């Protein structure tokens, strides 16, 4: 009698994990898939779990299909949406932008369809508990859950999304704005300080405004740069970049500027030039020596981020109105200290190009600077994998070290039967946080697992 093959575990059930699980269903035969998510809310994750209708995707709906080989899948789903969703769909000259909550419903519908199709087969099993450890066990792993249960698995995929700081409770300092109702319990007229001025800050400001907080909101970042706004684009040919020169960050930046100037002379937006780099961004990143990558992260990353990760036009208009009305103040400076007390916090910062330290008394400080290094994340699993030598941070500390095939690399080399995708691969792949990137990764990971199991 043939033994039942061990399942594959997918740890994390946001977009990344959900799509890996769906691709695996089509590739690994009768073998079961354990889709694991702490808290038991599947197919949403931090990005698409928001209930705020003003939180819009920063990618056009036309580019948000969950499947790389079916580019119109999401647009077709939108066409069949239920009445009453009109307020969550925004038609603009730059394209259609929808709320992240509505997109979460789309991903959830894909999972529900798969569950219905697999009903009775027990091939797709939802595990509503946190995975706290993976222990090597006879060529596979013992998957350990926070509740104490264990499962033997043949391998596992780390699809845990963005690594966020630990947030214990609501208080004067919010380390993780996605973990608590930070817009509640505020006193009108007393400042709220937001650390950072990127897309997370934008979401925070929108949520504070929607909660009828009267302001002011003070956003502080080192350069005081806001994400730019999507606009109508015209296709622009991919720049011709010589292989030898790709190893120099200054050369790449000069080449990009000259391309933008050429596009402008032709009446084409810089946005089209940036978008033309999408197919080669991975090659450009990996072609840079480690020292040049570090140089990019220190100096050029904020400028790249505001041009590459843009606001949907309705969001940009709201943010511009908040700034014009004094509700939102964006300041450039370096935070020196944050001292908290039961009734608020004192924030000291040195303005950019200034000598004197300034202080703001705030009722709440919200950290919107983004993710943290793997060893600092609120993940017992990542911590234990790193301690056990089964995984290690990439050379920039942005995520985990992975192979080009998404296999996790530990202290002794490639760790058999362990893969990762999405934001955990940022240091290796750089562009790996948006749906157009992750959907391709999910299909590739599933194909790699099928090859590993064959």
Automatic annotation (TrEMBL):
Membrane among keywords: yes
Keyword line: Membrane, Transmembrane, Transmembrane helix
Domain FAD-dependent urate hydroxylase HpyO/Asp monooxygenase CreE-like FAD/NAD(P)-binding, chain residue ranges per copy: 9-162
InterPro entries xref list: FAD/NAD-bd_sf, HpyO/CreE_NAD-binding, L-asp_N-monooxygenase_NS-form
UniProt xrefs under SUPFAM superfamilies: FAD/NAD(P)-binding domain (SSF51905)
Annotated TM spans: 6-25
Name of the protein in question: FAD-dependent urate hydroxylase HpyO/Asp monooxygenase CreE-like FAD/NAD(P)-binding domain-containing protein
Organism name: Methylobacterium iners
């Amino acid at each position: 009698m043939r033994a039942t093959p061990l399942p594959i575990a997918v740890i994390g059930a946001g977009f990344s994990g959900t799509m890996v699980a769906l691709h695996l269903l089509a590739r690994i035969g009768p073998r079961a898939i354990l889709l694991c998510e702490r808290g038991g809310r599947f197919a949403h994750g931090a990005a698409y779990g928001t209930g705020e209708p003003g939180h819009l995707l920063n990618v056009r709906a036309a580019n948000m299909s969950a499947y790389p080989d079916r580019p119109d899948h999401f647009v077709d789903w939108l066409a069949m949406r239920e009445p009453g969703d009109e307020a969550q769909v925004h038609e603009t000259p730059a394209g259609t932008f929808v709320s992240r909550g509505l997109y979460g419903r789309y991903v959830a519908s894909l999972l529900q369809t798969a569950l219905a199709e697999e009903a009775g087969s027990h091939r797709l099993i939802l595990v509503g508990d946190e995975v706290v450890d993976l222990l090597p066990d006879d060529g596979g792993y013992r998957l350990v859950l926070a509740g104490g249960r264990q499962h033997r698995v043949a391998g596992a995929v780390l699809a845990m999304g963005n690594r966020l700081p630990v947030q214990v409770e609501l208080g004067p300092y919010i380390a993780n704005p996605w973990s608590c109702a930070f817009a509640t319990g505020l006193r009108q007229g007393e400042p709220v300080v937001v650390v950072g001025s990127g897309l997370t800050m934008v979401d925070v400001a929108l949520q504070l405004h929607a909660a009828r907080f009267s302001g002011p909101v003070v956003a502080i970042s080192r350069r005081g740069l806001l994400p730019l706004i999507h606009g109508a684009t015209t296709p622009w040919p991919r720049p011709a970049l010589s292989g030898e020169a790709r190893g120099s960050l200054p050369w790449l930046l000069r080449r990009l500027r000259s391309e933008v100037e050429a596009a402008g002379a032709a009446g084409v937006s810089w946005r089209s030039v940036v978008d033309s780099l999408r197919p080669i961004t991975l090659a450009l990143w990996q072609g840079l020596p480690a020292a040049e990558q570090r140089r990019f992260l220190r100096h050029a990353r904020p400028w790249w981020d505001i041009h590459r990760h843009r606001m949907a036009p309705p969001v940009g208009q709201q943010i511009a109105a908040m700034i014009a009305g004094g509700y939102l103040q964006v300041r450039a400076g370096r935070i020196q200290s944050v001292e908290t007390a039961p009734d608020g916090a004192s924030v000291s910062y040195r303005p950019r190009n200034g000598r004197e330290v300034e202080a703001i008394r705030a009722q709440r400080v919200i950290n919107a600077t983004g993710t943290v290094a793997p060893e600092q994340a609120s993940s017992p699993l990542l911590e234990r994998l790193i301690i056990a030598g089964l995984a290690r941070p990439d050379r920039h500390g942005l995520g985990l070290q992975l192979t080009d095939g998404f296999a996790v690399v530990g202290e002794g080399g490639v760790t058999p039967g362990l893969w990762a995708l999405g934001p955990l691969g940022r240091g290796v792949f750089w562009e790996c946080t948006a749906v157009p990137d992750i959907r391709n990764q999910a299909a590739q990971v599933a194909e790699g697992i099928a090859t590993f199991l064959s």
